[in-house]
């Protein structure tokens, strides 16, 4: 990359370095978020394509620059000539017979001969506005490609983080559904036993069966979501993992820092790579207009050439050489209106790029504002979801007590069971929504990089989430539920 481009895009220098050097990183072995992110930077096909495209655009700049540098061309040929008819020339009466015979001999015998020629030419552009604007256009394309490459990397970072936390989200939801299925299954067994001894009616058994079937359907759906989440992560990284680190309960839940929505909007306008790419597109379109106008300008070039020719034709000896040095100029006077049409076309493209920039700017501002609001709401939602677990636990205990004394029926108990485990699942959803939305806010503000991923990675614990479907729920799930206020599994 040229120093000019490197200086213009200095804010993205660390990000671009991470992209261009990530292929030299060693494959990660520990399956935490940061190492999986590095695997994605090494193996993701979309990012590899963006890198190759960036290199292609850089090469295009060198292609354009070549038109302003000296051009040297050489050509040559070797030709065998054969004449099938020759002319004879009538001689005046005053010429002698010997001279006439000699002349006729030349015309009649020289019908096969070989020629060799060589040409060498060098040119140097002295004034070529079209070529100069093509170089300028190629440089503006590099500027735009820097931002597009940065946007591709940031999108990969958020995609990997979202896929990672979707797995953890699906795993926690699945464990809640497994716990729910087991608890309601035991409730169903108790209902059957009570029916057999005549304590309850068959309708209560059927209610328990319906609730159990619904919990089973919820568990199957959760298993499907977990399997799909596995596949998404594999698609992004090209690798499978035996397990990943879990998210700790001590994760800080706080407002974005600084807690000022206008700050995040300003950062997005100044740093969002998609916005900057569209802004660079305006400059690229503006150069396109200048390139079209350059079609009306003259071109001036210096040239020098050397020519050599030789032949073995009869009566010809030696060879011919010549050389030229000079300056040539060309001025397009009328091109059928194509130059004016190109100027109009470029003007419309410039106008279009300006609207594209404004659209991207407005979209980014809206997304930043929405994400900031969502993160702020997530902070309160997590706390509310946690309190909902405590409330639903108390409600379940009260409902069970009422059922034992006959003031509540089994439907009330089953609904309370479902409400509790729904609250546990919703709590997990809220925690992961907070993390993903926080990272998405940083992405829209142009502040998402490997360091931001490392900060989130510090929230993970050494507990491993296996990439195999749990059977019946793990004891850790119930212990964790106890810690956040959930009751022990019924019948345990």
Automatic annotation (TrEMBL):
<dbReference type="InterPro" id="IPR010130">
    <property type="entry name" value="T1SS_OMP_TolC"/>
</dbReference>
<feature type="region of interest" description="Disordered">
    <location>
        <begin position="89"/>
        <end position="108"/>
    </location>
</feature>
<dbReference type="InterPro" id="IPR003423">
    <property type="entry name" value="OMP_efflux"/>
</dbReference>
<keyword id="KW-0732">Signal</keyword>
<dbReference type="GO" id="GO:0009279">
    <property type="term" value="C:cell outer membrane"/>
</dbReference>
<dbReference type="GO" id="GO:0015562">
    <property type="term" value="F:efflux transmembrane transporter activity"/>
</dbReference>
<keyword id="KW-0472">Membrane</keyword>
<dbReference type="Pfam" id="PF02321">
    <property type="entry name" value="OEP"/>
</dbReference>
<dbReference type="GO" id="GO:1990281">
    <property type="term" value="C:efflux pump complex"/>
</dbReference>
<keyword id="KW-0813">Transport</keyword>
<keyword id="KW-0812">Transmembrane</keyword>
<keyword id="KW-0998">Cell outer membrane</keyword>
<protein>
    <submittedName>
        <fullName>TolC family outer membrane protein</fullName>
    </submittedName>
</protein>
<dbReference type="GO" id="GO:0015288">
    <property type="term" value="F:porin activity"/>
</dbReference>
<comment type="similarity">
    <text>Belongs to the outer membrane factor (OMF) (TC 1.B.17) family.</text>
</comment>
<dbReference type="InterPro" id="IPR051906">
    <property type="entry name" value="TolC-like"/>
</dbReference>
<keyword id="KW-1134">Transmembrane beta strand</keyword>
<feature type="signal peptide">
    <location>
        <begin position="1"/>
        <end position="30"/>
    </location>
</feature>
């Amino acid at each position: 990359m040229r120093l000019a481009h490197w200086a213009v895009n200095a804010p993205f220098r660390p990000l671009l370095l991470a992209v261009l050097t990530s292929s030299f990183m060693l494959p990660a072995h520990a399956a935490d978020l940061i190492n999986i992110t590095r695997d994605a930077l090494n193996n993701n096909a979309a990012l590899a394509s963006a890198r190759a495209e960036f290199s292609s655009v850089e090469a295009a700049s060198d292609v354009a620059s070549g038109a302003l540098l000296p051009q040297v061309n050489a050509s040559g040929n070797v030709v065998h000539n054969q004449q099938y008819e020759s002319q004879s020339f009538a001689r005046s009466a005053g010429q002698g017979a010997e001279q006439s015979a000699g002349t006729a001999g030349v015309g009649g015998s020289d019908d096969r001969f070989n020629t060799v020629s060589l040409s060498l030419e060098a040119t140097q552009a002295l004034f070529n506005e079209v070529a100069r604007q093509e170089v300028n256009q190629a440089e503006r394309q590099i500027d735009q490609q820097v931002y597009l490459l940065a946007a591709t990397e940031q999108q990969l970072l958020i995609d990997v983080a979202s896929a990672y936390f979707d797995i953890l989200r699906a795993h926690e939801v699945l464990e809640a559904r497994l716990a729910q299925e087991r608890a309601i299954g035991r409730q169903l067994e108790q209902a059957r036993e009570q029916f057999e001894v005549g304590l309850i009616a068959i309708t209560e058994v059927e209610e328990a069966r319906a609730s159990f079937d619904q919990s089973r359907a919820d568990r199957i759906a959760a298993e499907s979501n977990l399997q799909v989440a596995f596949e998404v992560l594999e698609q992004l990284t090209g690798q499978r993992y035996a397990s990943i680190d879990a998210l700790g309960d001590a994760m800080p839940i706080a407002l974005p820092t600084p807690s000022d929505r206008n700050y995040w909007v300003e950062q997005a306008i100044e740093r969002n790579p998609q916005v900057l790419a569209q802004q660079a597109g305006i400059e690229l379109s503006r150069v396109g207009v200048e390139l079209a106008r350059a079609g009306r300008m003259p071109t001036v070039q210096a040239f020098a050439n050397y020519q050599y020719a030789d032949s073995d034709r009869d009566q010809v000896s030696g060879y011919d050489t010549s050389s030229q040095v000079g300056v040539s100029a060309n001025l397009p006077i009328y091109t059928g209106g194509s130059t004016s049409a190109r100027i109009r076309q470029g003007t419309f493209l410039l106008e279009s790029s300006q609207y594209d920039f404004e659209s991207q700017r407005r979209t980014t501002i809206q997304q930043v504002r929405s994400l900031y609001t969502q993160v702020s709401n997530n902070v309160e939602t997590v706390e509310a979801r946690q309190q909902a677990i405590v409330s639903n636990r108390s409600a379940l205990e009260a409902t069970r007590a009422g059922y034992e004394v006959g003031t509540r029926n089994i439907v009330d108990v089953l609904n309370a069971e479902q409400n509790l485990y729904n609250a546990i699942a919703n709590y997990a959803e809220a925690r992961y929504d907070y993390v993903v939305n926080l990272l998405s806010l940083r992405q829209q503000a142009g502040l998402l990089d490997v360091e931001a991923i490392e900060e989130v990675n510090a929230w993970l614990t050494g507990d491993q989430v296996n990439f195999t479907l749990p059977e019946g729920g793990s004891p850790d799930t119930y212990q964790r539920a106890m810690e956040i206020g959930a009751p022990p599994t019924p019948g345990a």
